[in-house]
Amino acid sequence: MADAKFEALLRLGDNALILGHRVSEWCGHAPVLEEDIALANTALDLLGQTNLWLEYAGEVEGKGRSADDLAFLRDAWDFRNVLLVELPNGDFGQTIMRQYLFDQFNLLNLRALTESKDTRIAEIAEKAAKEAAYHVERSRGTVVGLGDGTQESHARMQEALNLLYPYALELFITDEVDDEMAEAGVFPDPKSLEDAYLVAVAATLQEATLDLPEAHFGHRGSGKDGRMHTEHLGHILTQMQWLQRAYPGQTW
Amino acid sequence: MSKEWPLWEIFIRGQHGLSHRHVGSLHAPDAETAIMNARDVYTRRNEGVSIWVVEARHITATAPGDKGPIFEPSESKIYRHPTFYDIPEDVGHM
Amino acid sequence: MYAQMVKSTGKGVKTLDEMEPEERAFQEKVDADIRIEPRDWMPEGYRKTLIRQIGQHAHSEIVGQLPEGNWITRAPTLERKMILLAKVQDEAGHGLYLYCAAETLGVSRDEMTEMLLSGKMKYSSIFNYPTLTWADIGAVGWLVDGAAIMNQVPLQRTSYGPYSRAMVRICKEESFHQRQGYDIMMKMAQGSEAQKRMAQDALNRFWYPSLMMFGPSDANSVHSEQSMAWKIKINSNDELRQKFVDQTVPQAEYLGLTVPDDTLAWNEDKGGYDFAEPDWDEFFDVLKGAGPVNHDRLEARRKAWDDGAWVREGLLAHAEKKRSAKVAAE
């Protein structure tokens, strides 16, 4: 139980960490100042969630590891995030599409987690769900605006969707960890969120005049259990962990 | 050069019970986005409980040259202010 | 400062007697500390100088995002990452407030951006220096923001209403910036040998560029005199530089770091430090484009602007479609 809970918390924490890291790369480079500021807010929320999830993961593990230890001192195979969040930012459209596909899941997942039998998880989810609700509103609006905007913006968004949608489906594959946690009433079964997700996404895409591609997540192995990652993750870590690795054990 | 997003004036109610106050402006393609941008730009430090946005071109203002005719006449109506009246202390608070 | 080398377009300061009635009324308001508002009459030189000054200040904020943004993905802890991101985000906000203030003078943000990218408008020379180590992030917060605050606090009283209000907002937000920089420096200065070396190295590299931020001595500058008469410049460059040195030297001593100036000495008579001037040739070279990262900075801004064009156009096109659909339905 403790092992499964640790694993499940890492999945939440690592998704938030890696996506927060990716979104933070935009700071100073967004298409317009208002978007620059908004993206930074999203990244800040995600990094805040990371802190809460990983701190609790460390406590559940019981080996005295802090949120920082988990973020900065694990190697790629120990990360439990889905592949979607580690993909490069691409153009702004790809970033926003990835954000929407994740936000929509994150909101449903967090709302379900507010019902968790683990009160600590329920409390964190309560706070994070409010943030996620705003993220969805914002990323959804931008996906719609760009999908329905000009010919060029429409084409770019369709391309982003075609690339990213198969990755989004990884969010719904389940394994023993999910089963055990769902059984215990601590985490929702990802499969139980899928219908609501597909309905919401379909509505958004329709408004955005985008076509849902025929797709499934075809990779064998998933980031959720660390058996699969893209090569991008290692490069994220070489940046993110540089100081902690080059000057071990220092106070910053 | 492409067309610029319209300019919006942002009004925020800082605490319950107070009026909305002009805090600044920003650009947004439409009103909905202007609200979201205002949330992200002007309430990063927990400054607000309510946001109004108005497209800047919809605001009509007094002209600086009209200052005299518009505002000065009220200066002479000192009887509108409570301090104009002397009420004996014995009467108590009024 | 962020508005270093902004030349006012006035031709020397006129006396009230030499002015036409409109200009005289304007100057009397300025003298009486009454704010000038966008639709008030103002001399053309005042308007043009303000556009240049506020625009340069705004550009400095957004170009200033880059050297610090350079370390967001490498910040050493989750908390440091969040603090730095929030700080750099604030700078985007400050740029935004200032562009809006300049827009009230009849120039659009897009126009100002084009002028930045074409080199017609400048930004502060300080942002043409690279951030090489994590200690540089501390030094930038401590020294660069420290110098900026020194200039910005008096500008809250500047004569132009929208500019003054933007500065009030900026100063309120800015106070955490310098503190977080010093906080980083304290951790480094109290840390390992390597961290101490890093901190000293950062101070060595950022000391003189920070002194340059106030601009060359303006003792005899006609432009400064005019800007001061208009109250869009409140203190002289030398005054502010002296104040900065006097404030910063004890802070460096507290950290156990050495200011890289052999001539630095307390001068009892003037109640301040004597210190070495920065290399002004370097300053002018950097301003002209020869700094180590001038090219990278402008290139990053140009890329963001060019790559973002389809996004700005796309969202506007959608908004216009929605608007016409609404009109058609009514």
Automatic annotation (TrEMBL), chain A:
Keyword Zinc: no
An example Gene Ontology molecular-function term: phenylacetyl-CoA 1,2-epoxidase activity
InterPro entries: Aromatic_CoA_ox/epox (IPR052703), PaaA_PaaC (IPR007814), PaaC (IPR011882)
Taxonomic superkingdom: Bacteria
A Pfam family the protein falls into: PaaA_PaaC
Endpoints of the signal sequence: none
Keyword Oxidoreductase in record: yes
Keywords, sorted A to Z: Oxidoreductase
UniProt-listed Enzyme Commission number(s): 1.14.13.149
Chain ranges passing through the membrane: none
Protein name: Phenylacetate-CoA oxygenase subunit PaaC
Species of origin: Maritimibacter dapengensis
UniProtKB/TrEMBL annotation, chain B:
NCBIfam families in the record: PA_CoA_Oxy2
Species per Swiss-Prot/TrEMBL record: Maritimibacter dapengensis
InterPro entries in UniProt: PaaB (IPR009359)
Domain of life of the native organism: Bacteria
Full protein name: 1,2-phenylacetyl-CoA epoxidase subunit B
A Pfam short name: PaaB
UniProtKB/TrEMBL annotation, chain C:
Pfam family, one: PaaA_PaaC
Keywords, sorted A to Z: Oxidoreductase
The keyword Oxidoreductase appears for this protein: yes
Protein name: 1,2-phenylacetyl-CoA epoxidase subunit A
Keyword hit for Oxidoreductase: yes
Origin: domain of life: Bacteria
Chain's gene name: paaA
Record EC number: 1.14.13.149
GO molecular function: phenylacetyl-CoA 1,2-epoxidase activity
